[in-house]
Amino acid sequence: MTRAAPENGYVGRQDPGASARRPELAVAVLGALGGWSIAVPYFGPLLGLTLDVEPRLEFIDHVVPGLVVVAVSGLLARLRRGRAGGLLSLSAACTISLAALWITATHMPLLWDASQGSVPWSTATFHTASGPAMLGLSLWLIFLDLRAPGRA
User: Fold this and answer.
1) Percentage above 70 pLDDT, the chain
2) SS3 letters across 51-91
3) Where are the domains of the chain?
4) How far is CA 45 from CA 117, 126, 127, in A?
5) What is the Cβ-side half-sphere exposure of residue 126, based on CA atoms within 13 angstroms?
6) From CA 33, how far away is CA 49, in angstroms rounded?
7) pTM above 0.90, yes or no
8) d(CA 69, CA 13)
């Protein structure tokens, strides 16, 4: 019994356009994670995941970098539409990476507190998770931009 070839003609391999769409999906996920990082200090108490932290610190550690990620992700989505690379795209990905690094670095003491038992792990991971995820995705986009055709 023989199988008919798929309509797209890509027998046994992926559509080449799929790999071009992955960075666009990553940018959308970055924007969503940025929004999530803004919401964490405000939704945490509703879920019973509270920390004894001053509101100004929550604002500095969540809202400011989250707004940077959301805004720059929107810019990056426009810059990358249909193409990869470019100095502005690379700069935007680096900016997101720095904001994500800020969130990650400022929450490392919280993970230490969780390891010592002074903060529940659920609260610590809820507050920390968006930073490393954004950092990983933004570093991947930087890598893709540096590998883009025309770059040496």
Assistant:
1) 80
2) CCCCHHHHHHHHHHHHHHHHHHHHHHHHHHCCCCCCHHHHH
3) 19-147
4) 19, 11, 11
5) 18
6) 18
7) no
8) 34
